[in-house]
Design a protein that fits this description.
About 35% of the residues lie in helices and about 20% in strands. With about 450 residues, the protein is of the alpha/beta class.
Length: about 450
């Protein structure tokens, strides 16, 4: 594959007003993607654009709009809306392209651009490379005639549409009447829609992280900082806590005692229930190499399989489509219920868990521990850009030694991050002391190689 100049593992991402997350790059994305997706046919072509609540969205959105309209694409602006909502609305409105302006769980200083095709799925690597090649053309190339410029309309009911779509995923025979729920929206894209969905389904809703100011997205709130959700659950004696991230494509939950329910446990809860109801497709679920060995054992004990992919929801989704699975996700809380969504949807995943809770009549503390996690340790080692510690003899030897010591009784994963100069070292196995020692030895070797 050609080297990618702009796109990473999940769209384009970086610090706002620093390359590549500048107004100029956003303008070039609009120009390039607009040219690519309006080729063919005389009809009007349409792009829909949503964003989270970051201050820099006010800079990136108009730059994208300028690019798209200048090559003749019409634009519909949604304002703050979760990433999965953009994917849904791209299909619903028969748009040629969907764009989400967000850096997901990162802090406010970062931002990003994610692109969705007309089918609502994230663009393939091949399409992103085509856009990159067009981005480096001159800004005067392929512009529309004055009478062919695109038109822009702000859609005021986008949030209401998404609310109705999400509510329709909850089983009709059930209701959430009287359930006390904490929802932490991370001061992000779901700050209006998530509380509305829960309230309209019958919950008593305690709202947290619903006062965005452009700078407080993911700031000591949301799925990356579950302490805020846990505190509210205990304070208000809630039945369950739900925390999404800045663009609401991932979710972490907690039970009424404040115990965390991560993505692996959420997958187990939903998969077990769907299997009982004969709704689980593909004979199992798709997860990544980071998912706990305990989840794999849980699935196997029920005659179900766990298929693993590289990290990233795009990899999970690709395998789901290939194998006919309708449930997949990541330990971090990206849960993809593909009967309802083409990408991770924290709110829909949470509703599936609530449905299990209501259907079984069990408190969340009984459901939250579907399997006992195998001891797992993860450490990140930062290295200087340009260094290649994984290619050194010392690190290779340490990895081989670690694999031999685990001896089939666990897993070892050492990989470079796709978004930062980090080496991630993860080991798991039934012997917690051995797991910790293996990680420590490999981390030491990586640090020595990176010095």
């Amino acid at each position: 594959m050609s080297k990618r100049a702009y796109f990473g593992t999940d769209g384009i991402r970086g610090q706002a007003n620093r390359h590549p997350m500048t107004a100029e790059v956003a303008l070039r994305v609009g120009l390039a993607a607009g040219k690519l997706f309006r080729s063919g046919g005389d009809r009007r072509h349409l792009v829909v654009i949503g964003k989270d609540t970051r201050l820099s969205g006010y800079m990136i959105e108009p730059a994208l709009v300028a690019g798209f309209t200048s090559v003749g694409m019409d634009v519909r602006l949604f304002g703050p809306l979760p990433t999965p909502g953009i994917a849904m609305m791209t299909r619903s409105m028969r748009a040629d392209l969907g764009v989400m302006i967000s850096a997901s769980h990162n802090n406010f200083a970062d931002n990003g651009i994610k692109l969705f095709g007309p089918d609502g799925y994230k663009l393939s690597d091949e399409m992103e490379l085509k856009i990159e090649s067009l981005m480096d053309e001159g800004l005067q190339e392929g512009l529309a005639e004055p009478f062919e410029l695109g038109r822009v309309v702000r859609i005021d009911d986008a949030q209401a549409r998404y609310v109705e779509i999400v509510k329709a995923t909850f089983p009709r025979r059930l209701n959430l009447n009287g359930l006390r729920v904490v929802i932490d929206c991370a001061n992000g894209a779901a700050y209006k829609v998530a509380p509305t969905v829960l309230y309209e389904l019958g919950c008593e809703v305690i709202e947290v992280g619903v006062k965005p100011n452009g700078l407080n997205i993911n700031d000591e709130c949301g799925s990356t900082y579950p302490k805020t959700m846990i505190k509210a659950v205990k304070e208000y004696r809630a039945d369950i806590g739900i925390a999404v991230d800045g663009d609401a494509d991932r979710v972490v939950m907690c039970d009424e005692k404040g115990e965390i329910i991560d993505g692996d446990q959420i997958l187990a809860i939903i998969a077990g229930s769907w299997a009982e109801e004969d709704k689980l497709k593909g004979g199992g679920v798709v997860a990544t190499v980071m998912s706990n060995l305990g989840l794999e054992r849980f699935m196997n004990a029920r005659g179900l399989k766990l298929e693993r992919t590289p990290v990233g929801d795009r990899s999970v989704m690709a395998r789901m489509r290939e194998g006919g699975f309708n449930l997949g996700g990541e330990q971090s809380g990206h849960i993809i219920p593909s009967d309802y969504s083409t990408t991770g949807d924290g709110l829909i995943a949470a509703l599936q868990v609530l449905a299990v809770m209501v259907r079984t009549g069990k408190p969340m503390s009984v459901l939250s521990r579907q399997f006992e996690p195998v001891p797992q340790k993860l450490e990140n080692v930062r290295f200087a850009n340009g260094a290649k510690p994984l290619e050194t003899a010392g690190v290779k030897a340490a990895i081989k030694d670690g694999e031999n010591r685990l001896n089939g009784g666990g897993r070892l994963l050492v990989r470079a991050s796709g978004t930062e100069p980090l080496i991630r070292v993860m080991a798991e196995g039934d012997d917690a002391k051995l797991v910790a020692q293996v990680v420590r030895d490999i981390v030491g070797a990586v640090k020595q190689a990176a010095a």
